[in-house]
Automatic annotation (TrEMBL):
Name of the encoding gene: ampD
Protein name (record): 1,6-anhydro-N-acetylmuramyl-L-alanine amidase AmpD
The enzyme's E.C. designation: 3.5.1.28
Recorded family membership: Belongs to the N-acetylmuramoyl-L-alanine amidase 2 family.
Keyword S-adenosyl-L-methionine on entry: no
Listed Pfam families: Amidase_2
Species: Kushneria aurantia
CDD domains the record matches: PGRP (cd06583)
Keywords: Cell wall biogenesis/degradation, Cytoplasm, Hydrolase, Metal-binding, Zinc
Reaction it catalyzes: Hydrolyzes the link between N-acetylmuramoyl residues and L-amino acid residues in certain cell-wall glycopeptides
Transport recorded as keyword: no
Length: 194
């Protein structure tokens, strides 16, 4: 369920790295993956990055990215819990320089969903939460449907590789086609945190 462009049942942390959508169009979902520090899961580094609080001295890699002003609409952790950083009616800064079906400035009309991960396989809880989220978004926003679901690597192939080869698109589409994403997100219980 979505209320005031926020996912009910998700944890909400506001990111300043967003602005108004120029047209209000929502017609694309971009799936990303992230782990901070690279190869590590858990902790608050992703939240710190998306809220401009990443401490550059906390890890050598952080010094290379702490200056970035980026965000995503959602983060799905390894356990399937979801954090929302940007309301869906606002433009999150997640796609960067990218192109899809001849269009640029993809942040203008897309939703960015980060999965906590790297080259290792994603978890069943993440696929379940992602399928439920996509189904919820399809029900709420007219322009969103699973035919307009891409990875960051597909819209920026020369500079991005996420969600990467370990992301199982066939499994996600199987879950969606079986209706596994059709049950309300808030009914997921242990899948989402509040």
């Amino acid at each position: 369920m979505i209320d005031a462009h926020r996912l009910v049942g998700a944890r909400h942390i506001d990111s300043p790295n967003c602005d108004a959508r120029p047209s209000g169009e929502l017609s694309l979902i971009v799936v990303h993956s992230i782990s901070l520090p690279p190869g590590e899961f858990g902790g608050d580094a992703i939240e710190a990055l998306f809220t401009n609080r990443l401490e550059p001295r906390a890890h050598p890699f952080f010094a290379t990215i702490a200056h970035l002003r980026v965000s995503a609409h959602l983060l799905i952790r390894r356990d399937g819990s979801i954090t929302q950083f940007v309301p869906f009616d606002r433009r999150a800064w997640h796609a960067g320089r990218s192109r899809w079906q001849g269009r640029r400035a993809l942040n203008d009309f897309s939703l960015g969903i980060e999965l906590e991960g790297d080259e290792r396989p994603f978890t069943a809880a993440q696929y379940s939460a992602l399928a439920r989220t996509i189904a919820t978004l399809e029900c709420h926003y007219e322009g969103i449907d699973r035919s307009r679901l891409v990875g960051h690597e597909q819209i920026a192939p020369l500079r991005k590789r996420d969600p990467g080869p370990s992301f199982d698109w066939c499994y996600l589409h199987l879950l969606l086609s079986r209706g596994c994403g059709n049950s309300p997100l808030v009914a997921a219980g242990s899948v989402v945190s509040s």
